[in-house]
Structure formats: structure tokens, C-alpha cells
């Protein structure tokens, strides 16, 4: 990850099309797509693993992990206590069509300008 200057995290990544589009459009960023359901990430993860000439990306990882289990420090955010940590990502995005309610701000970062430890 030394070659990436920024880290973007997508939450509730579902099947990951937004995450793949974001990874392709920003090769200077490392994209971490999280979802509690491993099956939901399977197709996007397989697409990302292809050779770049065949639609794959080298700057994305798809991880099965519930938001509440995230380690480290994160920015103050609408999620409250589990996400009330700071310093891990440059921006946090909900996945398009993801969790309703407070997370439904599709395509716009929820938190910006945090710093990695």
C-alpha cells in the first residue's frame, strides 16, 4: 500500500459495483470495500482479481466485516460509538443502494479529511 496516498472505505458494499467504479476511476487511491455478508462481495472480489486488461483492479480489496467490528480509530460519524474512532481513512462512503436511513447518502463521502495514524 505504500504507493497509495489515500485510502477510501466503502461500507455496506453489497455486490460492489460502486466500489469497482471508484477503484477504476481513482487508481491513486486504495479502496477498501466492507460488508458483513461474504457472499455479497464474492462477485466484485472476483472481478477485481482479474488482470487489469480484463477489467480487474490492483487498488481494491473486498473484506467481510461488520461495521461494528472495525479496528482502529475512525472519524466522528453518524454511526455513533462503534465508528466514533478517528484516523484510519481519508473518506468513508456508504455503498449505493446500501443501508437505509443515516447511511443513505449515495455517492457522497460521509466523512472527509481524517488522517491515518
Explain how this protein is built.
This protein is an alpha/beta fold. The protein has a domain at 6-69 and 94-107: Vaccinia Virus protein VP39 (Rossmann fold). The chain has two helices and five strands, in the order βαβαβββ. The model is unreliable at 79-88 and 94-117 (pLDDT under 50).
Main sheet attributes: strand count, strand direction, barrel closure: 5 strands, mixed
Strand order of the largest sheet: 3-2-1-4-5
Strand content: 15-25%
Which superfamily, in CATH terms, is the homologous superfamily of the domain at 6-69 and 94-107? Vaccinia Virus protein VP39
Architecture (CATH level 2) name of the domain at 6-69 and 94-107: 3-Layer(aba) Sandwich
Mean pLDDT level: 68
Number of extended strands: 5
Tell me the number of helical segments per DSSP (H or I, 4 or more residues long).
2
Poorly predicted runs: 79-88, 94-117
**Fraction of residues in H or I helices:** 10-25%
Helix and strand run: EHEHEEE
Amino acid at each position: 500500500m505504500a504507493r497509495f496516498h489515500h485510502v477510501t472505505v466503502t461500507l455496506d458494499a453489497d455486490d460492489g459495483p460502486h466500489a469497482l467504479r471508484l477503484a477504476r476511476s481513482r487508481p491513486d487511491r486504495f479502496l477498501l470495500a466492507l460488508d458483513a455478508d461474504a457472499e455479497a462481495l464474492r462477485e466484485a472480489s472476483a472481478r477485481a482479481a482479474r488482470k487489469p486488461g480484463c477489467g480487474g483492479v490492483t487498488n481494491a480489496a473486498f473484506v467481510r466485516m461488520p461495521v461494528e467490528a472495525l479496528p482502529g480509530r475512525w472519524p466522528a460519524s453518524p454511526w455513533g460509538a462503534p465508528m466514533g474512532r478517528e484516523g484510519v481513512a481519508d473518506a468513508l462512503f456508504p455503498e449505493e443502494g446500501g443501508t437505509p436511513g443515516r447511511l443513505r447518502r449515495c455517492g457522497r463521502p460521509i466523512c472527509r479529511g481524517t488522517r491515518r495514524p
